Every structure is written in C-alpha cells, then in structure tokens.
Batch of 3 targets.
Target 1
Amino acid sequence: MGSRSPLPILQGLLCEVEGGRLRVTGTDNEVTVRTYLEVEALEDGVTVIPAKLAADAVRKLPSGAVSVTAADGEVEITGNGPRFRLRELSVADYPKIDDSLPADTIDVVGETLVKALSQVGIAASTDDARPTLTGVLFEENEGGLRLVATDSYRLAVRDVLGIGATGSKLVPYRALRELGRTVGDGPMKVALGDREAAFLTDQGRLTVRIIDATFPKYRQLLPDSYPNRLEVSKQHLLEAVARAALVAEDHIPVRLNLHEGGVELSVIRQEVGEETEHIEGTYEGEEMTIAFNTRYLTEGVGAIDSDTVVLQTIDALKPGLLHGVGDEDFRYLLMPVRL
Amino acid sequence: MRIVVADCTVNYAGRLSAHLPRATRLILIKADGSLLIHAEAGAYKPLNWMNAPNHLVEEEGRWFITNGKGEELTIDLHEIHMDTAVELGEDPGLQKDGVELELQRLLSEQPEVIEEGLALIRREYPTPIGPVDLLCRDASGTTVAIEVKRRGEIDGVEQLTRYLEFLNRDERLAPVRGIFVAQTVKPQARVLATDRGIDWAEVDYELLRGADTDILRLF
C-alpha cells in the first residue's frame, strides 16, 4: 500500500472476487503485492477499499468470520456485531497491474530464500539517499545464487546452493522484507527481469522495481585468509555483547581483546561506567584488540546459523569476518571502530 | 587604481565602431592597464572597455588608447570632476564557500570517489577565465576537468562548459572531458550537463569527511 506515494488511490487495496477466490492488490508503484484467499462469495465483484482503515477495522473486530459488501460507493465490513461503512475508492483510478512473468524464472524453496534474505538484509541500508545500498544483490555464483547486502559499515554475503541464477540484479530490501509475510514461504518462482523482480507462490505475488545502479565491488573486500582466528560460543558472545551494550548504548564500541584462551570484552563510557568479561574460546594468532559497534556485532552474530561462531581478523583497522564454524555459506564482514 | 569622473565623449574603432555621446561617466584605469568606462546605470558592465595590454597616450583634453589588435579608443574629456589614484594592494581573491572549498580538498585527496581510476593532476588548474577546481586524468588517460559545487545548478554547468572550451584549445591536454560534481545535482543541471556531454556525479560530504573520523567504512 502506497504510504510513500502522493497518489491517493494508492492508499487503497484493490479487492477482486471471482469464483470463490479473493485477490487483494496493494502497490506504491515500486512494490506491488498481490495475495489470494479462498472466500465464501455470494457475488463476484471489484472494489477499492481504504487500506489502512479497512485493515485496522478488521483487526479490531471480534474474532470470527468477517463479511465484506461493496455497493453504491460504500464498503461495509461487519463481523459479530460491529459494522463499518467505508467510502469506496475509485476502481477506475486504480493502476493496471501487469501480471505477466518474465520468461526466465528460477524455482526456489521459499523458506530457504526468505531465511537467506533475512540473514543478509540486516546489512542493507535504510538510507534512501544512497539507494544502491538499500538493495540486496542477487547474483550468480559458482552455479548457485549469492545474496549480498551492505550499508558500507558491514557486508553480508549468503551463498544459496541449489538455486540456479543468472546475471546480477539489485532488489530493494524494503520489499524483500515483506516476502514471507505476504506471499509466504512455500515453493516459489523467482523472475529477475531487467526492470522488475517478481516472486510468485500459490499464495500470491510480490513484484518490485529493480534498483538501476552498480553495486559496490565487494569481492575485493573479502581476503582469502586471515592471520587471526577466534572460535567462541554464539550464545555466550551474544549474551556478553548484550551486557556490554547496556553500558555502551549505540555509539560506544565494545572492545574485544583477542588472546589465547578466548576473548575479553570491555566497554568504557566515561560518564557512566564500564563492563568487562571474559568468554572462553580458542584463539590462534597474535594478541590484539579490535572494537566494534555493538549493534552491528550483535546483528551479525545473531544471523549466523551455527552454535559456534568464528571471528577472523587482520588488524584493528581492517574489517573482521564472522561466520559459523565449518560454514561459510553466510559471511558477515564488519568494519571496526577506531579506538 | 586611477579613478576619473568626467564629462566625456568616447569613440571606439576596432571590431566595430561605437560612439558614446557627451555625458558624465566614471573611467577606471586598473593597475594592470585595463580601462573601463562606466555610466551611472548599467550594473557591473562597463559601457566600453579596453583590456590590457594597451597603450595610453594622454593629451590635453583627449586620451588615446590603442592595443595590438588595432583597436582604438578615443576619449574626449570636456570637464574633469575628479581624478584620483588609490593603491588597493594585492587582492586575496574570491573566497569560496567553506564547505565547497573543503569538498574540493577532500575530492582532490580521493578523486576515485567521483569515478573509478581518476587521478589528480592538480587543484585549481589555471585557465584564462579562472581556475578549474580539479584537473584529473581518467583510467584511459583522458584529461578530465572537474567543477565542484555544493549545490549543482545550471550556472555551474555553464561555468564548466566555458572552462572546457578553453582547456580543449590546449593541444597538450585535449581532448578534455568534464565532470560536474556536487552534493546534489539539480534535475535541470543534470539535463544540461548530459546535453553538453558533461558527466555529473553526486558526492556525500559527510561520507568524504568520514575518512577522518573513528567510524570506518568498508568502501
């Protein structure tokens, strides 16, 4: 629904009933979501209802069946007593949505894609001033699909094996975030066209305009090897960073002193106080201290799908690499903060 | 700077002929020899002028100014109201807006932000109509003139167009292409730049400055 659009009609949802199936369409001209629902229909018809009000109204109705009737420029929504009568928006004004699908589609397990997107999506920027960084790069990599996102402070890379992809396309994460919630995570067809990307399941379809920009050359940021390597429990690291974050807030980095036997986390905020703790782990390399933004570190560690995480470093000013032990399908490159 | 206010008649012969009938006017003779004749109105533009180098011969009630191009200016001075000279001293030049100057400095240190492979030749590269902000060489070896503005508007594109015209006359540099760089480039300026074959780029001032802070970035 078009909260970002100046066109009033895009504040509406196009509802079409045909043969016992309701098709609901919302668009802001960049992202279009179309979902299907089996309904008990007395009569086929089309209406455009004010999206936010209708959704809030339905949500506030007592539980049970909801009945929607459109007639004479009004939409009546009732359920177990309460009755809303909302002004209908003009069906004729609603933009025509092109339902065709590009010829080249790839079949994916929706659940795998949705999860992979949520892993890399944490690194996508929300700053519209730099649109390139608000997207997730879909690109072909060694016969599989690679997803990449970066906000320039961190970079997340997820290789998804078994999904064939060709070329590379930049898809706004703002739309991808809604994928599981809207079209579900069942068997999915993905079409990456020159102008649009489409994600199709039997529950619906999400179409989004491709970002026409060049993604940063990220491969050169991922070195082949790192001299220092820490292995530590994901749970322990997350809990420790959460405690450090209590003192740090967002703008003070947490220091990680990497040494034989594990890592010492410390955070010092002059006017407030400090916190330190040691986490046992294995460390190979030179003793060193590196500092990270607590939120970025937490999000990266949290996205790793493994009980033990690996932090690899070069020095205090070069990006550190996080991934699961024995699993580099998901990699999270994090820029340190200068101490 | 010699400042003369006088009732005068002016005749110019050169590329064309021009005649200014008798009236009271301001005549400026700058230290470099250039001479300008101003009227009460007409904003900053002189009615007539003769650039340096030129040759001024002063006779009683009449000045002759000639130059190597065969141009001749004759000023008949009927009555002189004022004739004075003031030593203005050296001028520090036009101070650019602080952010713009800083932007130029930051970009000169990291021209690759504007375009990959760009290398600085020098800042404030002189042209006969003023210095161009950055002169660079691109990855293919072509010379690139870059005009840096805080806000990218049409007049900035015009300015760069003029620089390019002069720079392209220099065989050692030509061909010279242009890039118009600003924090934000207005849509009209984009269209004009594209129409003139000039590239444009937007740069993030905060991001450029970021290199100096504790917040490190991947790229």
Note: The longest helix of chain B spans residues 154-167.
Target 2
Amino acid sequence: MSKLTGWLYTLRSLVRRNAADREMADEIAFHIERQTRKNEALGLSVDEARRRALQEFGGTTRWREEARRARGSAPVDLIERDLRQAVRGLARNPAFALMTTLTLALAIGANAAMFGIVDRLLLRGPEHIAEPEQVVRVYVTRTLSNGNVTTSGLQPYVLYRGVRDHTSAFSAVATYLPLDLRVGVGLDARLVHATYATPDLFTLANVHPALGRFYTTEEDAPPHGEPVVVLGYGYWQADLAGDSAIVGRVVTLDDRRFRVVGVAPRGFTGVERAPIAAWLPMSTRPVDPRAGDWTTSWRPATPGILVGRLAVSNVQAAAQLTALVRREYEGPDKAMRTANVRVLPLSYDVQGTEPRELGVARLLAGVAIVMLLVAAANMTNLTLARALSRRRELGVRVALGAGRWTLVRLMILETVMISLLGGLLGLALAHWGGAVVREALMPNVAWDELPVNGRVLALTVAATLITGVVVGLIPALRVSGGDVALALRAGRSDSAGGGQSHGRARASLQVVQLTLSLVLLFTAGLFVRSLRDVQQLDLGYDRDRVLAVDISFPRPDSGATSARDGGVMANRAQYEDLLARFERVPRVASASIAFSSPLSAVNITKLRIPGRDSVLSGKDGMALLVAAGPHYFETVGTRILRGRGIEISDVSSAEPVVVVNETMARALWPGEDAIGRCVVLGVANGDACARVVGIARDVHQMTLKEDALNQAYVPWGQDRRLVGGSVMLVRGQSDASRLIPALTEVVRRSAPGVRSLQIRSFEELLDPQVRPWRVGATVFGLFGAIVVLVAAIGLFSVVSYLVTQRTHELGVRIALGARRGQVLRLIMGGALRTALIGAVLGGVLSVAIGPTLQPLLFDNAARDPLLLAGVAIGLLAVAVVASAWPAWRATRVDPLLALRSD
Amino acid sequence: MAGQSSIVPGTLEMLVLKTLSLEPMHGWGIGERIQQLSQDVFAVNQGTLYPALERLQRDGLITAEWRVTENNRRARYYGITRSGLRRLETEREQWERSVRAVDLIMRTT
C-alpha cells in the first residue's frame, strides 16, 4: 500500500509541481521568520537575527531541492531541463532539425505502412484463424504424359471425404469454394462475394456465430443440402441494417431462396482474405445432374478447395495424402496414379504459387527498411558533422563540470526528440499512405479498419526510439570521447584532431546511402519498364476502346412447351434489340455480341478434321471456342489476316462457317492455306463440318501471359447452345468508359426488366493483372525519389559543413594564389569519389539481387546494363549538383575575412 | 550552545513522528519541540526537516494542511496518520531493542 500511495503522491506533486514548489517556499519562509523572531528574542539585532536564522537553516535552495527530490519529482525536473536544452539546441539549427525530421518521417511512415500490410498478409493470417501457420491448403501435382507438370488447388469432394475419414493428417479439414452471387434485382442488382463451405470450416477456424448458429453437417448432407445461409457480418450490417430478427427469415441469392440460420462473427473471412457476404452449405451448389454424382466423381464439374489444420508435420501430411490419392483414385487419368500431394500455407493461391502482389508487398517492406537505414545513416552523418562543429561548446560544458554521460545524454535526447517527431509525422503518413497502398495493391482483402493499429504503433515506437538512440549514440560517443582540453584550446576551424577518422566515418555512411539509392532506383526502373511493357503488350484486341456489357435477362416462363429453346430465342431477340439501340448511341463506333469473348469466359471444344486419319492430340485437338456476332472483330479490334470475319448473313440456316486464328491454321494445316478447309467442332457425331472462311490474329483469352492456343470463332447466330450468358461488346470512338452512363440509360429505358447489368472496359477487366506492376512502379519510384532526395540533401549538407570547417585553410590557399578551379576540385573531389564508389557498389549489388527480383518482373530480364548505367549516371549527376553549390561558395571565400576570423 | 549535538543518525523520522503523535505542528515547531523534549541535548539541523517531512508524506505516515497560527500567520501543519502511529510503534520497539543491545555490549567488561 505504501508503494502505491508513494506513487500517487509523486504523481500529484508532479501534476501540481509549481504549486508544490511555491508551498515549499512559503513554508521555508515561515520557518526563517519564526527563527528570526526567536533569535531577536535572544537579543540580536534584526539583521543579525535573520542572518543567523538563514545560517542555521543551512541554505534554503539546497534543502528546497532536497525536499523536491524527496517528493520524487526530481528526475522529471531533470528531464524537463534536458528537454528544454535539447529544444534550444535544435532551435539554433532549424534546417538540420527540419530536414532530419522530414526524412525520418518519410522513412518511418513507409515502414509503418508496409509493416501494417505485410503483417496482415503474412504474419497474422486471416482474421479469426488461430495459429495460421498450421492451416494449409491441399494441392495435387501431376506429371502429364508430355512431361508437363500441373498443380491444382481444386479438389473433388471425394478427396475431401477420403482425407476426413481415412487419414489422421488434419485435426480439422474442410472444403469450400468462393464465388460471386447476385443480390437485388434489375439495374440495382450487384454481385457479392460468397462461399460454399462444409460446416467444418467453422470448426477449423474455431469461431462462434455473432447471431444464431452455423449450419450443421446434416444440413450440408450431399447430394442436396438444405437451403440455409449464414450471413457475413459486414453484409448483415450494411445491407440488412444489422437486423437482429434476421434469423429464420429468407433471403434471395442468385434467384434462389435461402433461410438465414445465423450471422458469422465480425471480420470472419474463412481462410481467404476477401470479405464474404454469405456462407452456404457446400451441397447447395447448383449441379448439373448429367455430370454424374459429384460426391463420388474424381473429376466433378464442381470441385472445391481443400483446407486443413495440421495434426502432424506438413511432410507427414503430404505423404499420407499422396498415398490416399494414389490408392483411391478411380478414373482414366494415369497421371493420378503417380500424383503427389503438397500442402502449402495460406499465402499461396489456388495455382499453388505465391501471388505476385505478396512478393511486391514483401519487397516493398524490405525497401522501407532500407529507406529507414538510409535516413538513419543520413541523420547520423549530419549529427556527427554538427557535433564536431559543437566541440568547443561541449568542451566548455565539460570544463564547467558536465560529465561525459551528461553530454551523451544531451545529444541522444536531441536525436530522440527528432526521431519521435519524425515518428509522429510518419504515423500520419502511414495512416494516409497505408490506406492508399493497400487499396491499390489488393483491394479485395478484408483489411483492418485502420492502417495504423496497435501492432503497427508498437513497431513504430520501437523503431523510432532505437533510431533516435543509435543515431545519437555514435556521434555522442565519438565527440565526447576526445580530449576536452584539446578541443578548448583549438581554434574554431580545428578539424585536425581526429578529423581523419571522422571524415572516414562520414564518407562510408555516404557510400552506404548512395549504394542503396542506386539499388532502389534500379529496382524502380525495372518495375516501370515492366509496367510499360504490360501496358504496351499486344493482346490481340484493343483494351482502351472496348466495353463489355454483361447483362442477364429474366428466365423465360417455365410454362412454355420447350422452355429451353424458347428461352434462348427470346433472349436472342432481346440481345439483338439492345445491340441495335447501342449502335445508335453517339460516339459508339460499333457494337457486337459474343459468347465467351476474351476476359469473360473460357469455353473449350474438341475438334476433328473429317477424312484425316491421325487423331489430333493434346493441344492440337482442342480449341477455345468463341461464338461471335457480326462486326465482332472490328469491335474488339482483332485483325482478320486473311478471308473474312463473321457477317450478318451467317445465320443458322446458312452454311456453317468458322474463323480460326493463326496458331490453329498453322497447327491443323501446316504449310497449306486453311481457307476453305473443313473442321468439325464438338464431339457429337451429328456435328456438321464448318468451313474456314477467315484467319484472325492470336489473342490472349484471359491473362497477360499465356501460350497461344487454337481459337475458333463460330457465328453467334448459328449455334443455339452458345447464346445464354453472352456478353455484348461496344467500341467507342475514343475513351470507351465515358460511354457507360449512356449505355446504362439505354438499358434502363428499353429493357427495364433485366436481372443484372454490369458494364466494364477491357482495361478494367485486365486491371487486377496489371495492378502489381503499377503499384510496384509507383511505390518504388516514390521510395527511390525520396531516398535520392535524402542522399542529395545529405551530400549537400556534408559538403557545406566541410567548406565551413575549412574556411580558414581555403582562405590561405586562395591568398597564396589558388585558382577557382583548383578550389572547386579540392572540395568536390571528395564528394564525387564517394558518389563514384557508391555507384559502383550499387551496381554490383543491383546485379546481385537480380535473381530475387526476376519473378516479380514481367518477362524482362532483371539484368539491364543500359538501365543500370542510366541510373548510375543520373545518380552521379545528382551528386555533382548537390556538391557543386557549396563548392562554388568555397571559391568565393574572401581570404582576408577567412584569415581574420579566428 | 555548548553541550548540544546533532540527533542520532537515522532517528530523525522517528522523532518527527513522536512529536507529531503529541499534537499537529508546523515544521519550525517540530524542530523546536525535539530540541525542547531532549532538554536541549539535540539540535535539529533545520533544513533536513523538510526533505524528511516530504518523505513521511509520500509514505502516507503524516498529512499536511495549511492553517493559521496563533499569530495570524499561515503555516503548514503536519499531523500523524494511523499508519504513522503504527510505524512509530514499530520504530520505538526497534529502537528500544537496539538501545538494550548496545547497552549490553557497552556494559561488558
């Protein structure tokens, strides 16, 4: 208890420190007064009595101090005094304070922002998942007969059941499949992220519902589960106003009705990162009954992602699962008999690779640390220079009785104050910039609400304090270690005593800065070039001119006799009506329609050539099939190399025709003219032979990087299987995205009953693939610019400092007849030598880290001598400019003034 | 003032507590009272009183309040708390034990 009251007492006296001091003074005054009166009573004169009283007390100041110390507030007083001194010291040199604070703020801000991102993505795992490193996804790797190795993260339900029931690899295992569901109707309809999952996903995550309950294994019993749903917390809050009576009600998702049984806990995203609006039982997925029993098939149309919490080591788990797959597989795929199962952490995607965004984020975090090092090196350098110029002042302080420790403390206090200020500013930057970077890099992740959370704050405070102490400690120890008397005796311009070693320390710090600057600039350059290459990449169509209008019409009345055909025909009429209206919109160049056009879907068909004996194998026997309407090629901007495209006359009653791409023409009819040939698309015997009427350029169907495949375009009007789910394409005369409001208005007026409408440009559809490079180029460029700026300012300040230090010497030289050029060389020589060493080392380092960067770049080599040389020359130019100004000032030194100044 | 000596080291706080257990008192008065009670054997080093009073306050053994003296002057009066009284008791026992012990040693011939 006494300890607590003691603390409280100290605290109270701290809070009312001034009042306490005043009271103490009053009290002592009273004491002296009484003692004086007592002495007077003994017969002394008034003055003598007072003098005696003071003497008897023994120094009022001393005892007042002692009493204050007893109150426990003395150390704080001391700190306050030191702080005041430090503030005064910094205020004497505001340029130094401002510069170091700003550079440090940028570096610390970058670190805080990037740590927040990397922490969320790599260190902590998805929210609510305890021990995320124990949770893995299951991948099956097969070696195909042609030697290719493929890895898939999509597994059949039968494997999930096998793993669950017949292995001990996992303490909990679940299968799930994310997808987009439509909520709402008509033009207001929108897509939300949802997930089909077996209920053991909740067990695996060990979460509890925020409301109601999760669905049960009985409700998720195959083949047809109960139509129940667990809503995501965010969706429940935003779209249903957090209605607590929601449990038991029915919601409509994708035109199907689901009964709400509960609400998932806040922030729960399963083992993925994107916010989820609805959790549905795995067995409520729509399945095509013709595809066979999805629960027993090894190649079902609807697989899922398999995730488990390890009960054994990951090697043992992989071994158990490999044995299971090889033993249990039933089917024609021989490669499955030798398949290998791998288990990989959650940071890997469905293809079993680490997403590029993650690599970029990690690299950026590394770069942020480098930035902090550069900023710290710079600050150390400036502090050192400043400390050396203060040697005389420090010498005086020591002579007046300040201990070495006091000096060190004072200098560290200054740098800590700067770094704290920088840290504060940095947090503000991180709050703002972190939000920007994470949205730019990965918009579909359920991020923490604030970019600066407790963990980020803790790291920032630690980094800030460490930086402040280390940066202050080095110069403080160096300077305070010297002979004080020497410093005092020496003149102002002294730099001889230990100047050599200080100079070397300064130079090496600068070399470090310049080296790192060069590496950063080089990396930024590589990313900029990747971005440019990606943007200029010829995909086979125009990406900035074309809009994809994804529209879905209501299903036709089920009462119709042949609903299927009738529906398709009804839809076709609606599509054609809208197309005609789109074409009349001002600034629309052309409009067309397609089933599985680029960036919307992939539709693969088998093919055969009548009369040819050899069976087409592998890639040659298949083609990406696109059903294209009239004007399709000119609308998307794919060139027809020979023959013609699809025309209005290509209707179902006309002769079946097909347009093939270059690759297909070459593969099927090598060395011959493909035009006029005949090819059967599809496998059914009744499929008619289609005549090749044109050859089109190869296009990228879905991704920026893909091998050319056979592509076949059939008339949209000829194949009625390929109509529902078509996408309309609109080409604008200029920037297409400006047409979106006009097109939306057309739909609103002429087809108000549509179930959903989504209009996006090809550019937008490609954006997720371009994003890593864009963010990489932007952020690296920004970081690079900051670091170069810091290095330039550092160089400038140090050269300026050197000039000031050598004013006397320069004066002598000039007095003795040194020419301006000689002085310039003298001053700049050192700086340029430093820059040159930095550039060379940076070049070596850049080449060395090439292999690390390679996977993050787009197709281009990480070794680019031209870029490297350019960056190095640029950096040297910056060094010249930064040192030339102070060096020029040196040539203006007035010899008389310089000589007299001491 | 011949015959006066400083108080025994380490006993100042006990003596202050003892004084205050008789009646609340201001700083100067405490010094005077100690001197008086010791029949002028001990002279309190006056300055040392105030740090000691702060320490005792911090430990919650005494409290302080501003009051008006009989001469109409404002002065800070100190009073002993209940834990102060308990502390005084233990200090007194300890003191007596050590005095007896010292006595025993000194009597040994």
Note: The helical segments of chain B are 12-22, 27-37, 49-58, 82-107.
Target 3
Amino acid sequence: MSWISIVWSMNAGACFVLAGVCFVVWCKQTKSWPHLLFSCSAVAAGVIALIELAMLHTNTAGNYTELIRWIHVPVWVLTLSFVAFVRLYLRAGRRWLAWSICGLRTLVLILNFILTPNINFRAITSLRHFSWWGGEMVSVPVGTPNPWCLFSNISLLLLLIFSIDATVTVWRRGDQRRALVIGGSMILGAIVAWHIPLVIWGVIDVPFFLGFAYSGIVLAMGYELSNDMLQTVQLARELETSEANLRESQKRMELAANAAEMGMWMWDIVRDEIWITDKGRALFGFRPWEKLDFNRFRNGLHPDDRETVLEAVETSLRTGAEYESEFRVVLPDGQLRWIAGRGHVEFNGDGQPVRMRGASVDITKRKQAEEQVARQRNEMAHLSRVSTLGELSGSIAHELNLPLTAILSNAQAAQRILANGADLAEVREILSDIVSEDKRAGEVIHRLRQWLKKDKVQEHSLQINEVVDDVLKLIRSDLVNQKVTMDIELARNLPAVSGDPVQLQQVLVNLVVNACDAMTGCKTTERRLLIRTGIENDNSAVVVSVTDRGCSIPEEKIEEIFEPFFTTKSKGMGLGLSVCRTIITAHRGKICATNNPDRGATFHFSLPISSPEKEVLNASHPANMQCFSHGAVRRLGRCRSKSSERLAEVWLDGN
Amino acid sequence: MNTASPTVFVVDDYAPVRRSISRLLRAAGFLVATFASAEEFLAQYDPGAWGCLVLDVAMPALNGLQLQDILVKTRSLLPIVFLTGEGDIPMSVRAMKRGASDFLTKPVDEKDLLAAVRVAIDKHRAWRREQVEASDVRARLAALTPREREVLGYVVAGKLNKQIAGDLGTVEQTIKVHRARVMQKMKARSVAELVRLMERCRINGSVHC
C-alpha cells in the first residue's frame, strides 16, 4: 500500500472519528447544534479525502471527470455546515458573508450538475501521471478550465474573508486561545483550499488535497474537544467534592437540629407536599410513613391557634416576610405541645411563592414557665384587688344605695299615686326611673364582679379613657367622702392600647387611693387630684398620670416605693404600688413617680401603642391630639429627673 | 304664715333620689321644693319659710352637716331630717346634738320618712307658734313703763303688793295701780297666766325679758 493511500485514508479516518464523537455528543445533548454541524462537516471532509484518494489513483479521464462532479456534493455540505458551525460555535463571522457563501456554493453545486462535464473543466482532455514525493505515481487532469469556475473561486475567497473576520472578532472578544487555534486553522484551511483553482488553471502541479485543508480544523476541534473533556472531568470531580461537602453539612445540620430538638421542614407550595425531618414528625406527632400536606399540618393545630398560624403563613406568602409563629399542636394521644415555627418563603421569577423552608422547635417548657409566672402575677393582682375592695367597700355600698333608694321611694310613691287615683303619666315616669336605676345598680354589681373575677388575663384593644371613666365610677363616692376634688383631663382621639381592662383599672385605683392617702393631712380645700391621659411625643405610647397635692416622696425613696412591702402608712401592706409595677410591666409599659415642684407627687404610667395603630398615627397629623408637653412626657423615660414643672404649672394655672 | 301649707325642702346631689323622694312626699300630700346642692338651697332659702328640710349628708363641696351648721348659726328653726347612704353613729350623734329632727339611712321606707317629716313639721309648727306668742308677749312687754316692768318682775316672783311697795320704797296703793295696768297691758287675767306668758317668753331662749 502506498503512503499516499495511507495518509489520505488516515485523514478521512480522523475526520470520521471526530464526526462520530461529535455526533455522539449531539445525541446526548440534542440542543448542542454546533456538534451536529461539526459532525456533518467532518463527515463531508472525510468523504472528500476518500474521493480525492480515488482521483489520485484514477486512470481514465472519464472517471476523473465523474469524481470531480461528485466531489462538489461533500464540498457543498462541508462549506454550508462549516459556515453554520462557525456562526453557532464561535458566535462570530458576518451574517451577510455567511449567506453569500452558502448561496454561491449552492449555485456552484447546481451549475456543476447542469454544465458538462463539470463546473471546473469545460473538458478534461487527458490525465497526466507523474511521480510525486518519494516516487508515488499520481494523476492530475489536463483540460480547459470552465469560466463558471469563477463562482467557486469567489465563494472560496469569501470563505477566507469570513474566516479572517470571525477570527478577528473572537480575538477581540478576548478569547485568544480559541482565535489562535480554531481561527488560525480555519484561515490556514481557507488558504490551502486555493490550490484547487491553481491546479485547474495548471499553475501548480500537485494532486488535489482539499481534505487536508480541513485536517487543520479537525485537529483544532479535536484539541478543543479534549479540552472540553478535561474540563468536564474536572467539573465532575468538583461536583463530587461539593456533593460530599453538602452531604457532610446536611449531616451536621441534622445533628445540630436534632441536638436542638429542632424539626426542619420544607413545604412545596406548588405540589402542596411537606417534607419534614424525623425529629419534626415526632414533634408534630405525624406518623413516620404519613404523607404530609398543608391540610394535614393545619388539622394538627389546636383549634384556637389555627387562625393565627394561617394568618402568619398567608402574610409571609403575600409579603415575603419571615414566617414566625407560636402555636399548640394536638398530639395523637390528645396532649398539647407548644411549638415555635420560623420559615422563609422562596418565590419564582414571576413572584409566585413556590416553597417555604423552616424549622420548628418545642417550646412547651418555656410556655409552661411563662404561664406559671403569669398565673402567679394574676393571683397576686387578684389578691391585691380583693384587699383594695375593703377600701372601696364604702364607695361601692354607696353606689348601690343610691339606686336602691331611688327605686324604693319611686315604687312607694307610685303605690300612693295609684291609691289616690292614678296619674298615669307620673307613674310612667316613675317606672322609667325605676328601670334606669335598677340598671345602674346592676352595673355596679357587674363592675364589682369584674373586679373580683379571677380569670386569666384577657388582653384586648381598649381605650384608656374608658378605663379612667370606669375607675371614676368605682371611687367617686370615696373621693366625695374624703373631700377630694378630682380634676380630669382626657386627651381626645387617643389610639387604642392592648391590655386587660380590670388590671389597668386596678393600677389606676391603687394610684388614686395612694394619692388620697397622701392628702389625708391636707386641708379639705387643698385635697385636689388630677388624672390626665395623653400620648408620648413619638407616638409610641399612651400616658396616664395621677397628680396629688399631698406630701412629697423623699428623693432617695422615689425608686423604692415600687418595691413590695414598702409603705409609709400605718395601714396597708405596701403592695399597692408594687402590684401596679407588676401589672404595667406585664403590659410592656413603664411606671414611675416624680415629685411636683411645690408639693405632692405625680405617678405616670405608659402603655405601648400597637404597631398598626402607630402607623395610622404617624400617617395622620396628630393636630387634634392633645399631647403631653415635652417636660411631662420625657420623664417617663428618665424617672429620676427633677420634677414635673410643666405639668404642675399647667395644672396650677388651671386652678 | 301659719295658714300656708308647709313645704318639704329636699336637698340631694343625686337627681334620681331627689326626684323619687319628692314624688313620694308629693303623693303623701306635701308641697315639695328640690335642690341639687347645699349651695343652691342657701341661695334660695327664705328664713320665713316653714316646713322641714330633708337633707343628704354626702355631697360634693358643702355637705349636709356643714349646711346644718350654717342654719344653726343663722338661728333658723327649720327642722332637719337627715337622709344618708352611709351614716355611722358618731355622725348621727353629732347631727342630733345640733338639733336635727331625725337621722334616716337610705334606702328609706316611706313610713319612716313620712313619719319623720310629719314630726319635723309639727315641731316647726309648735316652735313657730311659740315664737309668735313670744313676740306677742314681747310686744306687750314693750308697752310697759320701766316702773311697770319692775313691778311685773316682783309680781311674777310671787311677791305681795305690800312687799313690793316696801322693796320699791312706795305705798301699797301705788303698786296696786301699777299691777292693774300691768295685768291690763299684758292681757293677763290672773297672776298664773302672767307667769305662763313670761315663761313662754323665756323658753325661746333668744328672748330676754
């Protein structure tokens, strides 16, 4: 076998192998069109090499003519697929050049089959055999070149320009390696292809070796592919490492989560499926094999907590805010467990929530401790209310006596009127008075019952001015008996605060009783008490103050007075103010006392305004709001400050 | 004055009680005037008015006991029936010592209230009658000459004409004439009646004979 046969066959073989590899890649990744195009062009190059080999060993001009005619088919395929490959793979080369090359090449193919014998020759007269490199005998055609061959040459020229242009673009883009390897081989190939017209015109005397013009590109692509392969291997290795790391961190996370008694979960919102760790299943009382969705989760919640949890979930789905809630779940054995859940919503590109991940933890013990503290606090508050009732009993008896007196006298008056010959109009009036007085007595009883109630604290939204009104009803008679004159200044349009009305009444009653006690030594004309309500300057809290005109508190004791069992009076246990502080602290508020500049002291307490109310406040201009002047409000923040000059001045001016 | 009907003055700061007491008293046939506070009553008080005062104790500003003090100081004869929601013994003792007619607690039964009011009005009537008589006696006394008044003192003391004449350093006959004039001016038919008149005058301690 001659070396020419070996070289040309090897060239063809290399092309086919590369084509095969690229085709396999394309089969695996059907979207990778450059691989298919390259595969096509490599097959075409291989076919060209084989046809050329046949030409070299042809003995008749007729066969040669026929081979030249057919070689245009793989050339056409090669040109088109190669141009498309460059466009897709390198994303370079001008579009109009690409289209022109393809158009011209197609035109050449058509003309090749229309013209006789082909587009290259008008006629092949004979074959010239000569010995080439190392004495191999090769055949080259001798004949008249076909002028239509010009189209083929133009397309070749355009291909060269296209290759240079694409290479420059790639180079400029900064991908110099690719520009050198692929671009360089492309340009080299396009130049080498020029031997064909030169052979045809009889300028040079060599056999056709178009297949080799392509082999540079094949080598370059082979290099690229092996590069890709190397990178893939490296990526795979990295992926393996990171997966191992991921598994490791997952294990660690699970370990930490289990150690923290934490259950991790993920809710696929689109499919409505919940994945949860075993610990989490145990936490919620789900069976290990149970399939979980949101409804199953919802059904496990304590009925009283369902609404709160659903609201929290909805809010985070709507706003993307962190999900956070504390709730009870009913375990299969009927036990209750307190759970705190936190989670984070993930959204897709359209802003739709797709999943939520989070963790839940058992907080039963903490809740029980909290409940116990609250219970003790309430019991103390209740005991204190019961003992305060002793002081208020006179007042309450009086409040009951008044309507009872009116009812009895009215009823007896009516009996007389009826006996005298009825004046129905008057009797009607009497009955209506009796009804309203009876209701009044009922209200007194109701207030009393509320006051003595030992219920759990029921926090709800309330108006502090209403609390003040209720307290006035409780203690009015007491104040009259003690000859204390009460001044009330209630700010209008105060925002609501959250709290237990009875406990807040208790605070105010204690403060008023305290103030009255402080004034027992004063002349009756000087026994004045002022209750004010207002709002802090920064709209953060509602403020209530009770000012008396009695004896001042010694400055060094002004903090001590809220301690349990601190008392300066002969009667009482010294628990009143301490209960006040306990209640106000439980309401997230503050309480403090200050001495007035001339005489007496002022007790202030503040209750925080709930956030939505605050937003409303901040949005609207609080022009119609009677605000505490700066001096009075700031004192809540720094209770030790000297005195309440401003407030006292206002009040004394008022007198 | 005695011919006009007595009025019951009701002072209570709590309107429903005030209304109901007033209705009851009116149904029982009394004339009633109501006041929401001690100050309001004082502002409209006519010392010549007669009847009685039904007075609440616990009231803002001026309370019932203070009003009683003011009335005592002005020598008012208006009897007071106290009506209180929370009366204690020291309070009632203090009120009674200062001449209250009665001290009732709320809620009050009509029987007690009406009885107390009737007693108070009767007292007022009696006091007033005595007062009228006393002033009548005072007018007659005013008509006496100094000498006649001197003689009157001796007569009431039970002295005989002779003794009086001896004490005054005059003759019995002159004393007889004085005595007859005294009896005539005082419209007394006997010495016993004269003594009774003088006593009535003295009972109303405010009068000096």
Note: The two ends of chain B are 25 Å apart (CA to CA).
